[in-house]
């Protein structure tokens, strides 16, 4: 195993973190990759192997499952600290009473976390390698602001004072020292940031819960500080609490807390009943700043909630705007009602099925993953279509990676008669009608359903599409490009023969009404029958020695080459008629070619030349769509 090094660190001190995403000595395997939204990434060029899977002894991976659970547990304790710190400042007797042992237990857990931090590996931001050297981990922690603040927010100053002096003190300074615990709130911020990126949780509700927590903390902190101002004023009767509850300092803690929360919420919501109001100048100044803070907090809350709500309706706004644009365009260009309805139906379906569109979902994935997904979805459909029955797995695998899936609403034309053939289609679900137009009248020919194909006749013969194909109901189809199909078939000769045989069988099974609309196909089938008869007559002796069926014979040969034959010399074109030529499959011998030409033109030739006058001596040298002149 080789390992890329970006700095002069020893190999044992740095490791690429990626293997630990899947197998770690400390916690086994990660079962849900959605939880790795904030995990570590390896540096470019880092070579990873099995020897980098395990961390050094007595080290913890920062994304270890059990360490993450420990961090989540500390977040719960942070919530308590966020409540107790302002509360103990306002109600000092609570800090030396029932809450003191709870504070000690909570501080103990955070002291344990300080010790654990010296054993947690970290990611070097310059190399993106996991640093495992204990000295470097300790040096990094001690030289940052985190360590002194973590220690200051964890030390139980009131308990230490009681142990040293043997006295219990409710001095004001201890209340402010307890506010250092609010440093722990950074854990909550990181926790919510990780939850917002975790796809297992709803972003809307995660963000909504975060906004509620921010609001409750602001209300709680302001209410406690406002009560503390009342308790510290030199004349308790000239305070907002003393004016309503004489002797409030000796009353219940929870009575004072209830009044404080009531004032804070009423002020935050700008209701202002007037029953609790500032009395002295200090309270009035605090109230002014609190209301200014509320303006910013309210704007923050409204802005976030608006974004969350609007985000869910963005697609609706886009759809309405697009529909209005379509209506304006149709009205301006005086499009017929039927065409306008097709445009609206297609646009509406596009937005309704946006999450099902394969291109949007798959475009950012690697090609191998896209191909695997498309095989899972459409392989059976391709294998059961008449053109691809019996082809090899290699052909299907290559073809399925090039298909495009689309949805069409009812009564929409997918293929239009006489348009240039660029694609053909296979129906995955739904149904379509095949229609043709005669003298301006529409005539129904057939109905196609799931796993049936259309458009392939125009593509293979390279002729304008002979029919119009219209959806009967909501249909999903896969589109295959003419260009990609030809590129794929050319090197796969055996699959080409199978496709050719399947296509001929399909043409022979078409209805008479459909063949009547395709003169070229009808002529091709007649020529094919004549060609087979000529070849059978010329090779009768070979057939007696080794009889094989026509289908087996076609499968044993290379795909037939199509050529165009003419019954005259290249420089002596007939003045009228008969100059279009005949499209045939190239036989295996010159004698058979002359026999086919005799059946087509009524006279037997002896010479075969190309358009440039060069004489043909070897049929194997001919290419697709060559023009041959026989005279």
From TrEMBL:
Q: List, alphabetically, the SUPFAM superfamilies matched.
A: cAMP-binding domain-like (SSF51206), Voltage-gated potassium channels (SSF81324)
Q: Where is the composition biased (Low complexity)?
A: 549-559
Q: Which Gene3D superfamilies match?
A: 1.10.287.70, Jelly Rolls
Q: Which residues form the Cyclic nucleotide-binding domain?
A: 387-506
InterPro entries per UniProt? cNMP-bd_dom, cNMP-bd_dom_sf, Ion_trans_dom, K_chnl_volt-dep_EAG/ELK/ERG, KAT/AKT, KHA_dom, RmlC-like_jellyroll
Its topology with respect to the membrane?
A: Multi-pass membrane protein
Pfam families linked to this entry: cNMP_binding, Ion_trans, KHA
Q: Where is this region: Disordered?
A: 536-559
According to the UniProt record, one GO cellular component term is: monoatomic ion channel complex
Q: What PROSITE patterns does UniProt report for this protein, alphabetically?
A: CNMP_BINDING_3, KHA
The GO terms this record gives for MF are: voltage-gated potassium channel activity
Q: Which family does it belong to?
A: Belongs to the potassium channel family. Plant (TC 1.A.1.4) subfamily.
Protein name in UniProt: Potassium channel
**What species is this protein from?**
Solanum stoloniferum
